[in-house]
């Protein structure tokens, strides 16, 4: 099980360790249920980790507009295991998407300082 917290802006936050070889960075990411990818990071973090560019993809933003995203190859430590994922470059704070949460239960107490819990579903 992984745990996080709800911040003062009522955003659910979870720490994720992003890895590239020996470079590690712990990132506090906002859980975004409208984001269908794995993880998005600012390009400055992607550059600092030296992640490899993979391809460009079109995505739809929350306001309905479409944009192109550069996708990078990355590795995270997720639920105690190393997992290869795609990381979107975005000019926002780090966002954790629904794809990485597939097969997991998300629970949160939506008050500032509330507990966020992510645990694998029993049948997984």
Automatic annotation (TrEMBL):
This entry's Enzyme Commission designation comes to: 3.4.23.-
- InterPro entries in the record: Peptidase_asp_AF0612
Tell me which domain of life the UniProt entry assigns to the organism this sequence originates from. Bacteria
Q: Which GO terms describe its biological process?
A: proteolysis
User: GO terms for molecular function, please?
Assistant: peptidase activity
Key words of the record: Hydrolase, Protease
What is this protein identified as?
Answer: Clan AA aspartic protease
Source species: Romeriopsis navalis LEGE 11480
